[in-house]
Amino acid sequence: MERYRNLGGNSGILGFEIGKDSITVVFKKGKKPYTYSYIIAGEKHVENMKILARKGLGLHSYIMKYVKNLYD
Question: How many CB atoms lie within 10 A of CB 69?
Fold first, then answer.
């Protein structure tokens, strides 16, 4: 699991792990891993989340806006 850089300073995300067709995210609250995959969240959203995770900015906001409940 890679630590989320949190460049904005107020993210609710601790870390993430990128897979071929998925991304797993660990939130600060609960610390339970959530996996977002092509099958449920869709390829477009997963790929956007991978970019934001690597960048360290905007991932939490993106999840809350587009894929909040679309985890496996």
Answer: 8
Q: pLDDT tens digit string along 46-59?
A: 999 999 999 999 99
Query: For 28-49, how does the pLDDT look when each residue is reduced to its tens digit (9 = 90+)?
Result: 998 899 999 999 999 999 999 9
Which residue reads 């970019």 in tokens?
A: 51
- Spell out the alpha helix ranges (H) of the chain: 43-55, 59-62
| Contact in structure between 40 and 4 (CB atoms under 8 Å) | no
Are 36 and 46 in contact by the 8 Å Cβ rule? The answer is: yes
User: What's the CA gap between 8 and 42, in Å, rounded?
Assistant: 26
CB 2 within 8 A of CB 13: no
Q: Which amino acid is at 31?
A: K
Token match 């806006």: residue? 65
